[in-house]
């Protein structure tokens, strides 16, 4: 195996992971976790001694390293989530940043979290597209996610509530403590999708199994996200001569993580409660295509296709009928159309921050700005080209970036959704209000 890292550097990487766990998490770990940590130390000591005594060569070390380090990282992720289960992702990230001495970008300190936590979440709150999510803990958000399915009243879905609850908890445990792409973001996507479904004729368009699968896809769409984008993964792979696909790197990993969760423990396998193989195949297809639709490199093609089909649907509804319009219009009788619409909705909800009230929108974008800036530090550290536009520079540059993203990418998508489902036009209207505020701030 060729690699730009030396065997010694690999050993150091393992040691650093274990040192971090030992230094920061051992005191908060329960007895079982503490025993696992001790076993990891023994394995590391064996690998270290075997290599230094020439019992293991470089290839053997790389092979063992890859398996063992991934095991340690997975354990660390779950340990972090267990420790922070009763904390918000925002608070957990701040604690982690303090421990790792991560530099905060100035806007990170501008978050406004003045909303009052509700002791009991009702339907009205879950229908609110401006719900403030960052004040709730991982545990609470997991419980709210289960409530989404309760309020959907999916009487045709026979998955027991305890199975669904266990699956959601395991999904929570497989997110990382990062500023933005954490379970709070995943819940926000699914909650907005739920809101759009309940408020519009989308509920007349797709089946119970399809919306069930799409909301599950939303909850799992960023599993094991480490706070870096696809380009970082590709650049890192090239740097270290690692063969990997350059297409939807993260999205494919999120899909794989989702299905690994199901395969590793039968109590998470909700497919076993479906009536037949056809239902199982459809659910799997919807989950996979919805997660893959969150790849921003597909945005332009998805939007162009949506615009054309919305236009044909409007023409058909106005009485214009020919073979081309009939073929291009949306019809709930066509499975492909239902899948495409739900893929679009998952993608739109994934980039929906600008549809919120301004302060809430800014909270989300501040967190994403921190994550972007953190990525550039990682890029510099491993010696690849730094993505310059991700570096936080100043407020005017930040506001300008938000205007470009909202106006060029998010607004056109939600305008088309509003054309298809008029009950959702208020979301694109909110984007326009935010664009006006951003414009005013640029003039100040």
Give a quick set of tags describing it.
444 residues, mainly alpha, Catalytic domain of cyclic nucleotide phosphodiesterase 4b2b, 2 domains, globular, metal ion binding
Structure description:
With 444 residues, this protein is mainly α. It folds into two domains: 7-83, no CATH class; 89-443, Catalytic domain of cyclic nucleotide phosphodiesterase 4b2b, CATH 1.10.1300.10. 67% of the residues lie in helices and 0% in strands. It is built from 19 helices and no strands. α6 (138-152) runs antiparallel to α7. The longest helix is centred in the N-terminal third of the chain and has 26 residues, at 58-83.
């Amino acid at each position: 195996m060729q690699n730009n890292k030396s065997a010694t550097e690999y050993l150091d990487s393992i040691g650093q992971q274990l040192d971090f766990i030992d230094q920061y998490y051992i005191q908060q770990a329960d007895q079982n976790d503490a025993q696992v940590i001790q076993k990891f130390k023994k394995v590391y000591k064996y690998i270290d001694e075997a290599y230094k005594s020439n019992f293991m060569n470089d290839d053997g070390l790389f092979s063992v390293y890859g398996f063992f380090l991934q095991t340690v990282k997975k354990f660390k992720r779950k340990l972090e989530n267990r420790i922070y289960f009763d904390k918000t992702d925002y608070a957990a990230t701040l604690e982690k940043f303090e421990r790792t001495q991560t530099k905060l970008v100035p806007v990170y300190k501008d978050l406004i979290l003045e909303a009052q936590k509700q002791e009991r979440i009702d339907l009205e709150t879950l229908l609110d597209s401006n719900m403030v999510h960052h004040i709730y803990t991982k545990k609470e958000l997991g419980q709210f996610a289960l409530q989404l399915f309760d309020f959907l009243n999916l009487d045709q879905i026979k998955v027991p509530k305890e199975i669904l609850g266990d699956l959601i908890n395991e999904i929570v445990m497989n997110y990382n403590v990062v500023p933005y792409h954490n379970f709070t973001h995943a819940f926000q996507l699914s909650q907005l999708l739920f809101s759009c479904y309940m408020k519009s004729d989308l509920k007349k368009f797709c089946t119970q199994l399809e919306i069930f699968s799409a909301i599950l896809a939303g909850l799992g769409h960023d599993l094991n996200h480490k706070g870096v984008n696809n380009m970082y993964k590709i650049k890192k792979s090239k740097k270290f001569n690692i063969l990997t696909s350059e297409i939807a790197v993260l999205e494919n990993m999120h899909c794989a993580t989702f299905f690994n969760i199901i395969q590793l423990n039968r109590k998470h396998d909700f497919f076993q409660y479906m009536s037949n193989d056809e239902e199982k195949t459809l659910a799997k297809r919807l989950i996979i295509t919805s997660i893959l639709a969150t790849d921003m490199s597909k945005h332009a093609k998805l939007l162009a296709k949506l615009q054309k089909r919305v236009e044909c649907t409007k023409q058909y509804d106005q009485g214009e009928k020919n073979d081309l319009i009939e073929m291009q219009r949306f019809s709930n009788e066509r499975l492909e159309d239902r899948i495409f619409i739900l893929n679009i909705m998952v993608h739109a909800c994934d980039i929906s921050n600008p549809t919120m009230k301004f302060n809430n929108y800014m909270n989300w974008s501040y967190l994403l700005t921190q994550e972007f800036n953190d990525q550039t530090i990682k890029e510099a550290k491993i010696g690849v080209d730094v993505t310059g536009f991700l570096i936080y520079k100043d407020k005017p540059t930040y506001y300008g970036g938000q205007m470009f993203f909202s106006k060029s990418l998010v607004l056109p998508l939600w305008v088309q959704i509003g054309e298809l489902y008029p009950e959702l036009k208020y979301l694109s209207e909110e984007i326009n209000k935010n664009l006006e505020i951003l414009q005013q701030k640029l003039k100040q």
